[in-house]
Each structure stands twice: as C-alpha cells, then as structure tokens.
Design a protein that fits this description.
Number of domains: 2
Radius of gyration: 20 Å
Oligomer: single chain
Bound molecules: zinc ion
Distance between the termini: 33 Å
CATH architecture of the largest domain: Alpha-Beta Barrel
CATH class of the largest domain: Alpha Beta
Number of strands: 11
CATH topology of the largest domain: N-terminal domain of MutM-like DNA repair proteins
Helix content: 10-25%
Strand order of the largest sheet: 2-9-5-4-3
Order of helices and strands: HEEHEEEEEEEHHHHHEE
Strand content: 15-25%
Largest sheet: 5 strands, mixed
Shape: globular
Number of helices: 7
CATH superfamily of the largest domain: MutM-like, N-terminal
C-alpha cells in the first residue's frame, strides 16, 4: 500500500513527466466505483478539457489542481497505481480509468483490488481537511508532536496509522519507525517519556526520508505492488530493518523478529529491542 514516500515519489515522477500544463482530452472510465464524487457521468464530463495547473500531495492523496478551480484528489489505497503510456497502448488488465492527455499521452490507473478512490471537487477541504500534520513539514516541530501525542491513551501503532493524528504513515513505515525508536506497538502514547517521544519523532522523520531517498518500497513482484510512473520499482525494500522479516535476526541485537497482529494489521517487532513495558526490563 502506497504511503507518504511512495505517493511523494509518484508526485515527483508526474512532475518530471511534464504533466503540469497538460490538458485532459478524454476520460475513459471502466470501473465507475473508482469515482468517489461527483456522479461518474458528471465526473467524466467535468474533467474534459481541464488543464493540470498544479501537482501536490497531502497525506496519501495526490492532488491535481485543475483549471476553473477544481481539484482531482487520488487515493491509491491498497493496490492503486498510475502509469504514463502512449495513447496507442492498449489498456492493460485492471485499468479502471484512463485520462487521455495532449501530446498523445495517457495516464492509466490500475487497481487490482479496486479500493482506490478519485474525488473531483472545488472544495479541497472536504476531502483532505481532517488529515493531521505533515511529518516532514518544517512547521511540524517536536513540541507540536509531543502536544498531540502526550494526551492520547491509544496504543502507538493504531495512533500512528490514524491519518487524523499524523499524515501519510502506513503499516510499513510505522513498523520501521517503532523499531528505530525501540518502542512496542502496543505501548500507550501517554506513557512515553519526553526522551522516548523525541526518539519516535526523529525515527518517523528518518524512515520517511529514507523511503523518499530510495523512491519507495516495492515488496515482491506482483501486479498489485507499488510501482513508479514508468513501471520501475522503488528500492527502499532493501533497507527495511523489521518489516516482513519475521524469523530473521534483528539487525540491532540479533534476536529473531516476531510477527503479531495489532489493529488488524500484520506487525513486526524485535521482542528484545521493543519490550512491551520497558520499565520491567527485558
Ligand atoms: Zn533487536
């Protein structure tokens, strides 16, 4: 599932591919439920002849600013991905939507599981207004993080996955950040000391930057993975310390990595580096 570093990479790819300034000539919609709003027929009609005048990201949403005050917000969810092709290229299986652009290009939207959603709106706030702060924003200081974290009694993993608490984190980067900060995913947020919270703040920013620098995480080889706009893979999977490494030695201490389920999500920890209650020792 694409998280902040993957969506960031796709955004950079869209910019480099020259999408800014392109016009949408035609919309081919093959799976109408891809469109969250407005109604599918209106969505297709409104998108025609709009020009792409801005490319941005908020949390896990890609945001295309369009002429006449519209925003096209794309959430890739589990298995959505974008591929830039020539219009002459036949649609691959699982293409749910194609935007035909000028200069003979087309933006294909693949989605094997069909959970991804596209919103077309003039009111950006109604789509992204409830999303929490951007963890890599210069405005997001440790004091800001602490003030949000400390009053919360929730366990760290579900809290960090909550997009209204913090933008852009998903299963991979939460597991990596908690390992980096040596914190158990079930530890309650308000039990963290100032020092532990500072380690967590630094760890979140560190793993997200590492993910961006290595163009995101592509696990395995299946169609439903994250891929870049030209179909190539990210490289962050080679840098993962804990995620999907069950049974392998922890890179820090050598104890075997364990898998547990937290908030219905597969979760990976080192039982030695990430004790549930650090006050009780190992
Ligand atoms: Zn360890």
């Amino acid at each position: 599932m694409p998280e902040l570093p993957e969506v960031h990479t796709i955004l950079q790819d869209l910019k480099q591919a020259g999408l800014l300034g392109c016009s949408i000539q035609k919309v081919l919609l093959y799976w109408p439920k891809t469109v969250a709003q407005p109604a599918a027929s209106l969505f297709c009609r409104l998108l025609r002849h709009k020009q792409i005048i801005g490319l941005d990201r908020r949390g896990k949403y890609l945001i295309l600013s369009l002429s006449q005050g519209y925003y096209l917000c794309i959430h890739l969810r589990m298995t959505g991905r974008l591929l830039l092709v020539d219009q002459a290229t036949p649609e691959a299986p699982h293409v749910r939507l194609r935007l035909e652009l000028d200069r003979g290009k087309a933006l294909d939207y693949h989605d094997t599981r069909k959970f991804g959603r596209w919103h077309l709106t003039k009111n950006l706030e109604e789509v992204v207004g409830k999303i929490g702060p951007e963890p890599l924003s210069p405005n997001f200081t440790f004091e800001n993080f602490w003030n949000r974290l400390h009053p919360r009694s929730r366990a760290l993993k579900p809290l960090l996955l909550d997009q209204t608490f913090l933008a852009g984190l998903g299963n991979i980067y939460v597991d990596e950040a908690l390992w980096q900060a040596q914190l158990h995913p079930l530890q309650s947020a308000h039990q963290l000391t100032l020092e532990q919270a500072r380690h967590l703040y630094q760890a979140i920013r560190y793993v997200l930057k590492r993910g961006i620098e290595s163009q995101g995480t592509t696990l395995g080889t299946g169609r439903s993975n994250y891929y870049r706009l030209d179909g190539t893979r990210g490289e962050h999977q080679t840098l993962l310390n804990i995620f999907r490494r069950t049974g392998e030695p922890c890179p820090r201490c050598g104890h075997l990595i364990e898998r547990l389920v937290v908030a219905q999500r597969s979760t990976h920890i080192c039982p030695y580096c990430q004790p549930k209650n650090p006050n009780l020792g190992h």
